[in-house]
Amino acid sequence: GRWTHEEAVAEVRRRGSGFVWIGLHEPNEDQINGIAETFDLHELAVEDAVHAHQRPKLERYDDTLFMVLKTVRYVANKTLTTNSEIVESGELMAFVGRDFVITVRHGRHAGLARVRRQLEETPEQISLGPAAVLHGIADHVVDTYLDVTEAIQDDIDKIEAEVFALRTKVSAEQIYLMKREVLELRRAVMPLAKPLQRLAEGYTPIVPEQVRSYFRDVDDHLTTVSERVASFDELLTTLVDATLAKITLQQNTDMRKISAWVAIISTPTMIAGIYGMNFEVMPETDWAFGYPVTLLVMLISCLVLFKTFRRNRWL
Amino acid sequence: GRWTHEEAVAEVRRRGSGFVWIGLHEPNEDQINGIAETFDLHELAVEDAVHAHQRPKLERYDDTLFMVLKTVRYVANKTLTTNSEIVESGELMAFVGRDFVITVRHGRHAGLARVRRQLEETPEQISLGPAAVLHGIADHVVDTYLDVTEAIQDDIDKIEAEVFALRTKVSAEQIYLMKREVLELRRAVMPLAKPLQRLAEGYTPIVPEQVRSYFRDVDDHLTTVSERVASFDELLTTLVDATLAKITLQQNTDMRKISAWVAIISTPTMIAGIYGMNFEVMPETDWAFGYPVTLLVMLISCLVLFKTFRRNRWL
Amino acid sequence: GRWTHEEAVAEVRRRGSGFVWIGLHEPNEDQINGIAETFDLHELAVEDAVHAHQRPKLERYDDTLFMVLKTVRYVANKTLTTNSEIVESGELMAFVGRDFVITVRHGRHAGLARVRRQLEETPEQISLGPAAVLHGIADHVVDTYLDVTEAIQDDIDKIEAEVFALRTKVSAEQIYLMKREVLELRRAVMPLAKPLQRLAEGYTPIVPEQVRSYFRDVDDHLTTVSERVASFDELLTTLVDATLAKITLQQNTDMRKISAWVAIISTPTMIAGIYGMNFEVMPETDWAFGYPVTLLVMLISCLVLFKTFRRNRWL
Amino acid sequence: GRWTHEEAVAEVRRRGSGFVWIGLHEPNEDQINGIAETFDLHELAVEDAVHAHQRPKLERYDDTLFMVLKTVRYVANKTLTTNSEIVESGELMAFVGRDFVITVRHGRHAGLARVRRQLEETPEQISLGPAAVLHGIADHVVDTYLDVTEAIQDDIDKIEAEVFALRTKVSAEQIYLMKREVLELRRAVMPLAKPLQRLAEGYTPIVPEQVRSYFRDVDDHLTTVSERVASFDELLTTLVDATLAKITLQQNTDMRKISAWVAIISTPTMIAGIYGMNFEVMPETDWAFGYPVTLLVMLISCLVLFKTFRRNRWL
Amino acid sequence: GRWTHEEAVAEVRRRGSGFVWIGLHEPNEDQINGIAETFDLHELAVEDAVHAHQRPKLERYDDTLFMVLKTVRYVANKTLTTNSEIVESGELMAFVGRDFVITVRHGRHAGLARVRRQLEETPEQISLGPAAVLHGIADHVVDTYLDVTEAIQDDIDKIEAEVFALRTKVSAEQIYLMKREVLELRRAVMPLAKPLQRLAEGYTPIVPEQVRSYFRDVDDHLTTVSERVASFDELLTTLVDATLAKITLQQNTDMRKISAWVAIISTPTMIAGIYGMNFEVMPETDWAFGYPVTLLVMLISCLVLFKTFRRNRWL
């Protein structure tokens, strides 16, 4: 039959081996208080677990570890607006004791089913105790970071292609919004480094020797993520500047071209103006070939200007 | 009846338990000197407490802690000008001894009534002594930081929306003034990290073991604030660049459009000029359909130009 | 009567209490050599004291401290040019031994009269020995830094107001020159932090326990100065970008307006051109109301264009 | 005859001297599992070796070192597009034990033939054991970094020359793509510093005393590479800004020139317009020299404008 | 007579005092090998000494110090092009043992004659042994850094003056090339700090107590150089932005002016166009004063426009 958590932990303690894993989703204070009492969780940690909006951290209260991780999910957007989100974030907290793990999830996309399945398939992992669960969770979360960075990399590639395409509308807005999301991702990723390093270095007896190198491995992946995020940051900054340079260059080319055409057209207009004057004595106007010759002069002056502008690369 | 502070402290010391909390608001030297003598406060700290304009810090003089915190308040502004302030700051000093807390407030918005009420409602907190008061104050101050960052986040969201709206007046001024205020907020927030860490690490016997993890919690919230403030900074910098790119793009679009129209109009003007010439021999002018055909030519040339410019995306 | 410095130091050493304070202003090598011998000053420090152009530092040679401080003075300028200086800097060196202080001043504005007067008014300070003099000097110098940062703050406020005023000439030059001066101020201020911290931490037995917290206080003020200088730096960088954005926006507005007027005017010109053509058969020209109707058409077309441009916010 | 790796390692262990070097290229799990068992390699390291996409690192599992290096190759491109790569990267992993080296290569360009040849030519190196092989590999990899930075330096020189040439098309795209590649190179180079420093400082007994200074030497070369890469970064950032300044200047020159010509031409057009008016009474039109004098006035007005614009440096 | 280096070192070792100083200029391997054997120099250091292109560093091989310094020389350039160099760099290596100094120079401008002369003039320095020579060299090299920074300061002053002059051609190229050279100088200067600090802190018994404070002095000068170079960097970055702002402002002023003139001229052209129309009934044309009044209207409309533009600061 189903066990209450009190029965489960009592059974585990009677046997002297194994551990209890309790999973909660956005619990309210009432739901968590009973559990907190049974497992003797620290009041501050419990408060954090209920209210969420914590930053990634690792705390040790007596015999219990309390870890907060930010989960992220990539949201595909057709076009970015100031209201759209690329990176949706949630939170995952874990209380880890000698014989229990309590996980608290906030947000939609932080399911741990996959972690549980993987652990159940590798009994030698589970035998390492609650720390193995914590590793499984951290590993899973950092893996999703990797997925998100890859999706963002694709987005940036697309923006690059658009910016440097010949005549598409370059949008500084897209780059800015991308940057905003990258900054948010960075806030989720960076603070996790220290907790992972501590776990890898034997910060607490709850994490046995064998599990530490696994945390080192997770920290390694996190560093890969951090480096990518940092380079996104730099790329986007440079991209804004490059976009500006590109628009300015485009502007120069466009305006030069139109103005050059206006200048070409204004020359025959001037000539026409001259022969439109009403002077009594204008020898050319009486001449039979005056008209065709003037037209020819107009044409030639236009051609000469056109050639000159071409040579100057203005057209 | 009311106690003088000398009587209060004498009573407390007689009983051997409890503590005195004295709250002062912008005291002058005379007002503070008596208190300083009674509680044996260090001259430098007293001077700091009177003159304000200190940066956040924690000092230890013999048995007494002296802590300075910057309080901030968000001031809503319709429109920002170079004279308007978004973040109004004040100061809060606290002398903490074994059996007393003396708080000194500078500026309008540093009321501690809420802190006092909360403490009075949790006797187990008060029983931890003066350090619990210091924690209450620090917690309250950092909470107001969080509120202010949220308000600023809203402001930045508004500016973003304005910058990227289709045709509103983009104002570099707004962004700059926002940046200026964020820098000021940073100056209030950042230096507080070290004092809080020290208090959490058992810098002084005045802060008992149990209270330390509370300070760690406050420090955690401060780090959240710091990270937000840092990302405001980066966002605003990128926003200035994105604004510039947007204006330049807008400029290109506008000028190209107007110039293109001028170019279109100048073509029939040129043709009209030609037929305005006063040559004796101009066969077309004698032809009955000369006028309507010329009008047609003008129209067609305008249409061709219009189509061409459309294709080039200039119109 | 007046004492030579040898007599003074001999007297002090005979009495076994008190100390000698010798003040020099831009001494040459001859002037300082005698003193150097009497007080057994280290050759490298003496060389530094004569040649100036040192950066702030604190050196310990056997029993003698050698400290270099940069003094600064704000110079009010009507308008900034590439040759004008806002921050004029000088130097102040101090040799501090068990029973002597030798101060060497370089530059006009490093007078220590005020420091001497203040010390003479507080005998309990003087009784702390030469270290109290060193504190007095450091305190005075850092106070002048504060004054200078306030003056610069005013200058930056003025520049801000100018940049964002509706139609004043924005000068990138002013901002750049301000930045240059802020960088120079930073070079004077920043390196002083380490010496002050060392003095506060008991780097040398010459500085007695009681004086250390005074140096901590001075270091605190220096940190305030450093933070301000750092934020000037950032503000000016952002200000250059904001200025650029503002000019570009202004340019767009101006050019759009003029070009729109040119476009409006070119429409009646085109119409006039058409009725200036010399075709034999132009029915309108024979019509009695041709002229006023054409004028009306011109007027209407101008009005329509004007309205359209207004709607587009081009006028 | 050929040895299997089991026979080889058995032989080496029987003799008590020498070591086995096994080289693998993109092995799958089956291929590596046998080897992993023979040499008792740690599961996490083996996984890393199969899947690649690791960042440079050094791990110690019991008696075995596991090192990951990024190999890079410069790819010459005629013109850069968003799809082209300048820096192609691969991976090189090495397991180093007391009596064996196992190298795993990923990517085309990570051949170790040259390293093997060099080692075979210097028996005194080989006698230092597996660590000498590790040094040979690290030295070789860092040498290729140096080659790549030199090729990139040439590319940047070319871009510089183009940007500042009189009238070539300046491409912000090229600079941006260069920056992107430099960032990627940096991600390969920077993380290698710590592993090399550790090897130089005697992190593990597998690296004997004599080999350590060789690793220090390699680390030295890596620092040279790092500094170059860092300066590429800064140069490219400045280059984008300088390019923008150059385009803007060019734009100003071009537009000023064309507009000035349009202004010059519009003056005779206006004069011609005046004498094209059909007033009954226009004395000049009846005057015999009216026409040539008007032409002269037109010419002179053009010349005067031309001179004025020249003086203003607009032409 | 002349000594071979073997005889010299044998003599020195026989006497038990003094030391040998051997100076080499770009030696090939043969030339250095004999010396390396005599003085037992480490193979890696010897290799570095032959091949040059090292970065500044300090290595200790058993009893021998090996130090690399970058020498720099300012090259005056009329105008900067992408090929011109402002900072020409060479290298200076020194092997320092208990009783010998071997200096190796690469590049033209690294003469040590002056150092040798100065040392010969101060026998008390020479008596401190080889370390005094190393100090002499380091002091000399850092002095040349100071000279170069002063020359660069002058160059930057000149560029500043040019950028902010009223109408000179602002060249982003000059600023960029200056930045490039400053980056190169930085690469020579910065890495020397650590070696000097080590020598000042008693890293090796070869440097006796008395010489250490001299190295501290050299390190002080190097810090001055570093700070200047760092501020050059920042100034040049700001200068590029300020230049861009200046060009944009200039562009706005120029284009506004020309466009305003074109707008002014197009008004009488339009009026002339109207009276050039060929309507039968145009009362004004028959009026005797039609022509002069029209001319007057044209003039007045031009003046009104001129005044309006002036008021708007467009002219």
Question: What does the model show?
Answer:
By secondary structure, chain A is of the alpha+beta class. The first copy, chain A, has 2 domains: 244 residues, Beta Polymerase, domain 2 (2-Layer Sandwich), CATH 3.30.460.20; 63 residues, Methane Monooxygenase Hydroxylase, Chain G, domain 1 (Up-down Bundle), CATH 1.20.58. The first copy, chain A, has a 5-stranded mixed β-sheet with strand order 1-5-4-3-2, with helices on both faces. In chain A, helix 7 packs antiparallel against helix 9. Chain A is rod-shaped. Chain A starts with a helix and ends with a helix. Chains in contact: A-B, A-D, B-C, C-E, D-E. At the A-D interface, helix 6 and helix 9 of A face strand 2, helix 7, helix 9, helix 10 and helix 11 of D.
Helix and strand arrangement:
The structure is a homopentamer of 315-residue chains.
Chain A: H1 5-15, E1 20-25, H2 29-39, H3 43-51, E2 57-61, E3 64-74, E4 87-96, E5 100-106, H4 113-121, H5 123-126, H6 130-164, H7 172-189, H8 193-200, H9 209-275, H10 283-286, H11 290-311
Parallel strand pairs in A: 1-5
Antiparallel strand pairs in A: 2-3, 3-4, 4-5
